[in-house]
Amino acid sequence: MLRYEMIVIGAGPAGLSAATEAARSGMQVVVFDENARPGGQLFKQIHKFFGSREHQARTRGFRIGENLLKEAEEAGVKVVLNAAALGIYKNKEIAVSFGGATRGYRADCIVIATGASENMMSFKGWTLPGVMGAGAAQTLMNIQGVRPGGRILMVGSGNVGLVVSFQLLQAGCQVEAIVDAAPRVGGYGVHASKLSRTGVPFYMSHTVVEAKGSDRVESAVIAAVDERFRPVAGTEREIGADTVCIAVGLSPMGQLADNAGCEMSYLPAKGGYVPTVSEFGETSIPGIYCAGDAAGIEEASSAMIQGKICAAAACNSFGYINDEEFRERAEAYGLSLSKLRAGMFAPQNKGRTDISHTAEGYPLSGSLLQRGYISQDEIEAFPAARPGSGKGLRPVIECTQNIPCDPCQDACAQGCISVGGDITGLPTVDGDRKCTGCCMCVAACSGQAIFLVDEDCGNGSGLIGLPYEFLPLPEPGALGLALDRSGNALCGAEVVEVRKSAAMDRTAVLMMKVPAGMACAARFFRPADGRQACRGR
Amino acid sequence: MQRTIRTRPTLPFSPEGDDGLIVCRCEEITKGEIRRAVYDGMRSMNEVKRYLRAGMGLCQGQTCQRLVQGILSRELGLPLGETGRIRGRVPARPVILEDFGMSDGDSEGV
Amino acid sequence: MDADFRRSDVLIIGGGIVGCATAYRLGKRGVKALVIEKSEIGAGGSCRNAGGVRQSARDVRELPLAMHAVSDIWPTLGEELEIDVEYRQRGNLRLGKTEAHIKALTALVAKSVSAGLDVRMITGDEARAICPHMSDEVAGASWCPTDGHANPLHTTFGFYKKALEYGAAFVTGVTVHGLKKIRGRTRQALTDDGVYEADRVLLCAGYESRAIANTVGVDIPVEREVSEVFVTEQRPPMFDVMLGTSDADFYGHQSKHGSFVLGGMGGMEKYTSNDASVATHGITAPRLSRGVIKYFPTLRDIKVLRTWAGHYDVCIDGVPVVDNVGEAPGLTLAFGFCGHGFGISPAVSLALSELIIDGESKSIDVSALGYDRFRAKS
């Protein structure tokens, strides 16, 4: 039987990272993936990632996937696609099905990096065509190039629901509403804000109770829920939609570990049943490791580090790196991982609803949590969100939650912005330094939460530089409406300049002129001709 | 494994309005059937699976397992983690008989 | 309350089909049973077999159980249990491809005929007329028209549900470590949940029964043997017979659901049966797949959805023990079914209920299945 020193199951971020790490250290590695293309979910991720420079923050997910693949190739990793691992038997024997046959392989060690599957919810009509997982919708539009529908109801306000909703807008769909049975938006506030300002309404403490239609979804009924998440009679409201996207969490796909005989435990914070693993990702069976979402739901950046940790442990165990080298690597990776696992959205805080202030002591925006946007009076509590008194453009940073992200401080050549060593800290703006209006911070912010604001640029006008990722881009001189944070029309607006450059990586910055006094509230531009891929209300 | 005492139910089965809801799509098992199975004495994911076929279809419970666990948890007053799980079994993905038969420790080529 | 719960008329150790069915039959006669199961209901062989309800190719010592089950119980069992047990009495074909196969089958047939069973040898073409889609390689078969198959899961849970209705109680997640005699009678089960007690004890816990019986000085030569089954996706109905092969490449049937349930062995079982955990082996299902395709080429593109392994409780002479233990009064044994217990379990439970209540099995002759029949080679 053919044997590899390491067999990795799953060519997603965790699997490819593990394979590369091991191959670079000298192990002979093969990666099997059931899909036609590698990268796991990374190639669907067209948004910029969070984290720090070491985590490839502000790089778009698919680029990270391309980098990973290139590294794996350079390291000599063999990636076999359309190859489904069917089972793990005794003695680390793996059955893999591809090319019209099932083949047996043996491995000295195995890394299970099989990812997660989408949770479903059952409601009347949920089996109608048009009801799908948010991840499935993302695959349709970002991999297959097919728009999943025209009018979308998104169920779930976690990061998946929010990110996919934004991508649906980018693909030209209308997102009719985002509903979530929880009373608070589950994902990052910055993701919610970029939807709200285009006019997408949030219905918290609501759920979908029915998808209606004869042979496909024609509308959806939502209703408010009580504190035990039961729909309240009489609160139903019908929403016209042809697609209902379900984004109510992910479940680790640990079946292969289970099948191998690894000890499994039910851990709600990890999303369900996962193999019990050591700090280096080793399961109860020595030499079988588990990394990434299969070991517990997190996100791609931490999955990549987990993959490396497993591989380093395996390399150490088989003598490819010595104990000292292993300790150094494990420490560095551990540190990198702990940075991502910090802040109010850290895995250990999953499901908590009692966090009321940021680490800096600012009150969290209740409006953001309940409606998806920050109210004007709440935003003023955050110093970095106040434009300051000086003349000219100033960065206004509407980043109000402790999320692990710091590209803004690297983006500013003038050193105006700092996050500090703890990447979950809120950015601060040093008012004494000179903003040149270069817009790099606006484009660098993965949460699209930075604006350049000049409240009085003369002639009774204010100027706002805002991040913009919709096509077609407005031309300079385009007229339209300025929308506020909630997506309501505020005043007339004119795009005076469209900034774009390679360094901005497809996040354009619209310089939008509005009447003086409006610059502190105007956060989005809707062209008068309506030729824009986002919802009008 | 938790000790579970099972005796004849004392109250009649009480139907609910949404009992007709399909929960296991592959095998078309409804919420009402799962609730009825619990009433009939099933006490875990595996027993419900064996009694009703919920989770035995093409997806092997990938879609419905959580939903069934949720119903069991509510009906039995158990935490989700104590309703049991469908064991991961070979093949993790459906495989054509002829392809499956090719496996005999033969892995030449790759 | 708890102390009350630990006492019963009869303690049944093992919540498989034999335990559930006997609890039901005892309940029907007004005797209260408490079933102790270490895992879940039917978690052992009861839900891990391929559903054969077969008289042919059985040892003549257990043939009375098989023939009684088929003539008197199976035809109306679904109505009795108020569950669709999916019993189909469309015969059993045991297939042969080579001369050696035919010879072996012919010998088996002769034995069964002498015991009064309607079974005969037929040609390959006759077999293909009964079961189309079969390859031309089939040279002949034994044919028992009164054999059939049923759904072991529904049957097991049907008995369980009825047992509950008739007042039996079950406790799962409790492991019995041993038995204890009190004042000359086997009365107590010692468990990881304390002592359970009854006037009578039925031990029907598969291969694990042996160690438990050992604690009261009874040893039945039973060992476990691993075997595997796989199940496919649904197909429109193709055939209704129960199938086996002389070569034991596979056995099984198409279920009412439309899926094929096919079982067999890989050949290494002698050396894999005592692995720490029951797990499928890399060579077994592929071997079964090849075996099935040889006999049924049209199934080559059907999808396999699931495989599983289970343990036979193999008794040294190929038939179970179904008997009262005279030397440890109060104890009744029912194990060692060797992988063909499902089809006879409805009759076994009847015999057991009579052994327990009446002291002897009046309806069915189980006298050849005694507990002290094991002797040194002479």
Jot down its keywords.
heterotrimer, A: 537 residues, alpha/beta, FAD/NAD(P)-binding domain, 3 domains, seven-stranded mixed sheet, seven-stranded antiparallel sheet, 28% strand, disordered C terminus, C: 378 residues, D-Amino Acid Oxidase, Chain A, domain 2, 2 domains, eight-stranded mixed sheet, 10 helices, 28% helix, globular
Short description:
The complex is a heterotrimer of chains A (537), B (110) and C (378). Chain A contains twelve helices and 28 strands. Chain A is of the alpha/beta class and 537 residues long.
* Structure classification of chain C: alpha/beta
Annotated CATH topology of the largest domain in chain C: FAD/NAD(P)-binding domain
Strand content of chain C: 25-35%
CATH topological fold name of the largest domain in chain A? FAD/NAD(P)-binding domain
User: What is the strand tally of chain A?
Assistant: 28
Q: Average pLDDT value of chain C?
A: 95
How much helicity do the residues of chain A have?
A: 10-25%
The CATH class of the largest domain in chain A turns out to be: Alpha Beta
Notes on the protein architecture:
Chain A has 537 residues and is of the alpha/beta class. Chain A has three domains: 2-117 and 251-340, 3-Layer(bba) Sandwich (FAD/NAD(P)-binding domain), CATH 3.50.50.60; 120-248, FAD/NAD(P)-binding domain, CATH 3.50.50.60; 379-527, no CATH class. Chain A has twelve helices and 28 strands. Chain A is globular, with a radius of gyration of 24 Å. Chain A starts with a strand and ends in a 10-residue tail after the last strand. The relative contact order of chain A is 0.12. Mean pLDDT of chain A is 94; it is low at 533-537. By secondary structure, chain B is α+β, with helices and mostly antiparallel strands. Chain B is built from four helices and four strands. Chain B has helices at 31-39, 45-52, 65-76, 97-101; strands at residues 4-6, 22-24, 29-30, 95-96. Chain C is of the alpha/beta class and 378 residues long. Chain C has two domains: 2-47 and 153-221 and 317-369, 3-Layer(bba) Sandwich (FAD/NAD(P)-binding domain); 92-145 and 223-315, 2-Layer Sandwich (D-Amino Acid Oxidase, Chain A, domain 2), CATH 3.30.9.10. In chain C, strand 9 and strand 10 form a beta hairpin. In chain C, helix 2 (17-28) runs parallel beside helix 6 and helix 3 (63-81) crosses helix 10 (345-357). The radius of gyration of chain C is 20 Å and the shape is globular. Classes of the chains: A alpha/beta (537), B alpha+beta (110), C alpha/beta (378). The B-C interface holds B 1-9, 40-44, 46-47, 50-51, 53, 56-58, 60, 84, 89-91, 94-98, 100-105 and C 5, 38-43, 47, 153-154, 156-157, 160-161, 164-165, 167, 169-174, 193, 231-233, 257, 280, 282-283, 285-287, 289-290, 292-293, 299-308. Strand 4 of chain B pairs antiparallel with strand 16 of chain C, so a sheet runs across the interface.
